[in-house]
Amino acid sequence: MNRQNHMHEVIVSGIHMELSPSLKTFVQEKTERLFRHQERIVRIRVELECDPKQAVANRFTAKGHIQIHGPDLNASVSSDECHKATAMLIDKLDRMLERRARMIKTRRHNNLREIDMEAALPEAM
Fold first, then answer.
1. The CATH number of domain 10-110, selected from 3.40.50.1980, 1.10.10.10, 3.30.160.100, 3.40.50.200
2. How far is Cα of residue 89 from the mean position of the Cα atoms in its chain?
3. Which pTM was predicted?
4. What is the pLDDT along the chain (125 residues), one digit of tens a residue?
5. What SS3 class is residue 89?
């Protein structure tokens, strides 16, 4: 299946706020970077929340959930502006994906062990 022609599943929802079309396209454009880094992502869900009772510095919260083959990744970021919180969330999810890929690569390379050839082979008579 060609991933370039496949539409990625990104779910954007707003909690206690209306999502403008420009905000939805902003989130779509930012999440494309995550799909470019990791091809095995099944779905990304982004929840944008506005809580007017919070302090101004933490009024907007962006939560991200990446469903991927293996353990899912979840992150949350708070900021004073919705676009800023979204950008910070995507950066955080990107770092999490890079760390996960690095750990898988390290684990794969550490499983390759040298074999002691003299002990493994029986002596010829």
1. 3.30.160.100
2. 9
3. 0.78
4. 344 445 678 999 999 899 999 999 999 999 998 988 777 889 999 999 998 888 888 899 999 999 998 889 999 999 999 999 999 999 999 999 999 888 888 877 776 655 555 555 566 66
5. helix
